[in-house]
Write a structure and sequence with these properties.
Largest sheet: none
Distance between the termini: 104 Å
Oligomer: single chain
Helix content: 55-70%
Order of helices and strands: HHHHHHHHHHHH
Length: about 300
């Protein structure tokens, strides 16, 4: 017995969209960009789609689902002979698409690694690079302050993961020596007190500079005695092993001949520093200059 059902010879845009698995708006967009020719219209002025239109819509949907851009699909449909020609044909389009997907997969792996670090190390510390967090994992939970992590974040942006990993030694020393941390807080507070009401030649400026210099000397001694300085050398070696310099990459080395680890940065160090605001008063800036002069005179 034959079925009494007779399939329609043409369907409206809503039925076409429902069958293909898209929307009428998407089909109208296909018409606008020349991907799908305008179909005939019925007596009511509405579009009508036949068998060939539906076949083309199905191929468009399946190709778009594979990640190919609509413009590339249009070009391939416009010149079917190019489908196997490579280069500018569909083969070339597929090659470029695969390269894009490989890059996207690498980015997804990077993002997943970052999320895993955030879950393991805590959300803030986990946002630093693994080269930095790897040096901090031995510290007791909560021994690092938010200000420490803030500073490492800025340092990593300017000098890269290697620079921040080296600086992490400073915060390890502070976290493991309470008396040193207490003195650091005292000197920081003294510097912050040098606000805009203090003249640059006020005796307090030179006094705080001397206190900063003495503290940095004490901190350096602790870093040396605790073996953190030796760890810095190991960091450079590890970085060089992970990022071997290219033959023509001499410009990317610092004055010690070691790779700086800044090759991935979009801005130079000077550009980055110039874009990072610090609300330092003239008196505080003068204090910093005097402390640097004291350090230079001992070299």
């Amino acid at each position: 017995m034959y079925s009494s059902f007779v399939p329609p010879r043409q369907v409206r845009i809503g039925d076409a969209a429902a069958f293909v698995g898209t929307t009428p708006r998407a089909i109208r967009h296909y018409h606008e960009i020349g991907l799908l020719p305008e179909p005939v219209r019925g007596g009511d002025g509405r579009r009508r789609y036949g068998y060939e239109d539906m076949i083309r819509l199905l191929w468009i949907r399946r190709t778009a689902d594979a990640g190919i851009a609509l413009d590339d699909i249009r070009d391939a449909f416009a010149d079917p002979a190019s489908a196997s020609a490579g280069g500018d044909g569909i083969a070339g389009i597929l090659e470029r698409l695969e390269e894009t997907l490989v890059a996207q997969e690498a980015e997804l792996r990077r993002q997943r690694t970052a999320v895993q670090r955030m879950r393991a190390e805590g959300s803030r510390m986990g946002l630093l690079s693994d080269f930095v967090t790897g040096r901090l994992t031995s510290l007791p939970e909560g021994s690092l302050r938010q200000a420490d992590l803030d500073t490492l974040l800025v340092t990593e942006r300017i000098f890269g993961p290697l620079g921040a990993a080296v600086q992490a030694g400073r915060f390890i020393a502070l976290a493991t020596h309470p008396d040193l941390r207490e003195e650091s807080d005292r000197v920081d507070a003294a510097e912050e007190a040098l606000d805009d009401t203090i003249a640059v030649d006020d005796p307090r400026v030179a006094r705080v500079a001397a206190e900063r210099h003495a503290f940095e000397e004490a901190l350096h001694a602790v870093i040396e005695d605790s073996g953190l300085a030796a760890d810095d050398d190991a960091l450079f070696d590890s970085w060089d092993a992970l990022h071997p310099p290219a033959a023509d990459e001499g410009a990317g080395e610092d004055e010690t001949g070691r790779g700086s680890g800044r090759g991935h940065e979009l801005m130079s160090v000077l550009e980055a520093i110039g874009k990072m605001p610090y609300d330092f008063s003239p008196a505080r800036l003068r204090c910093m200059e005097l402390a640097e002069e004291l350090a230079a005179n001992e070299v």
